Amino acid sequence: DGGITQSPKYLFRKEGQNVTLSCEQNLNHDAMYWYRQDPGQGLRLIYYSQIVNDFQKGDIAEGYSVSREKKESFPLTVTSAQKNPTAFYLCASSKWVAGYNEQFFGPGTRLTVL
Amino acid sequence: KNEVEQSPQNLTAQEGEFITINCSYSVGISALHWLQQHPGGGIVSLFMLSSGKKKHGRLIATINIQEKHSSLHITASHPRDSAVYICAAMYSGGGADGLTFGKGTHLIIQP
User: Fold this and answer.
1) Is the distance from CB of B5 to CB of B100 less than 8 angstroms?
2) What is the mean pLDDT of residues A45-70?
3) In terms of CA atoms, which chain A residue is nearest residue B6?
4) For the residues B25-49, what does the mean pLDDT come to?
5) Could you read off the pLDDT of A2-51 as tens digits, one per residue?
6) A71: part of which helix (H) or strand (E)?
């Protein structure tokens, strides 16, 4: 089955530690995204990548870093510079359908920084 | 700044009721998505539309470009429809840089 996997589902880290969230897709999609979700707020775009070895900052990129060395993988690192890292993180990938960008979402990772 | 507004924020209804969730947006979208998020957190895409109406089972999505408004309807609602429903807009010229999301409508269907 094709889809997007994120691991782990729940992640706990101590304050000041960097942590990397995994996102893998086997849909052969070129574009991938990272979103953050906080209670009472809409999803916000952290980073996106339209092609291998290229990525762009989204609305809230500060304190985060990404890499796109392979088409299938788009890991997100939450650095110690991120002031409030506890949140639910969603990865997505997309394809163009009849001129529109249809996105598919992973199951998410809930990060708690203690 | 492009925004997406949803209403109501919370909705509790009895099984069998007809449900309507509303979404309004700024000018210039190329497509609008309706998404469903279950308590576990994963998101499923329900519809992507740019005009008119789409139907899938008991779910119906409509969009009125002139009024900049979209609605998601659920007929014969069931407790398994309980979830957060999210409206998201792809603004023209946004390319592949993601969507602008509403804050979601938390729907509870009671048996």
Assistant:
1) no
2) 94
3) A42
4) 88
5) 699 998 899 999 988 999 999 999 999 999 999 999 988 889 999 999 89
6) none
How far apart CA B49 and CA B33 sit, in angstroms, is 7
Give backbone dihedrals phi and psi of B79, rounded to 5 degrees, phi first: -50, -30
The dihedral built from the CA positions of residue A100, A108, A29 and B95, taken in this order, carries a sign that is positive
The whole-angstrom distance between A68's CA and the closest CA on chain B is 15
Residues in chain B with CB shorter than 8 Å from the CB of A43 are 86, 88, 99, 101
- Where is B14: in which H helix or E strand? strand B10-14
Dihedral angle, C-alpha B18, B23, B28, B29, nearest 10 °: -60
Whole-number Å distance between alpha carbons of B45 and A42: 15
With cut-offs at 50, 70 and 90, classify the pLDDT of residue A1: low
How many angstroms separate the Cα of A4 from the Cα of each of A23, A37, A94, B43? 7, 18, 11, 11
Identify any residues that bridge with B46 across adjacent strands, giving them in sequence order. none
d(CA A97, CA A100): 5
Cβ atoms A69, A5 nearer than 8 A: no
Q: Is the dihedral angle over the CA atoms A23, A29, A30, A34 positive or is it negative?
A: negative
Residue A67 one-letter amino acid: S
Decide: helix, strand or coil at residue B80: helix
Please tell me which residue of chain B has the smallest CA distance to A104.
Answer: B45
Q: Which two tokens stand for residue B51?
A: 């005009």
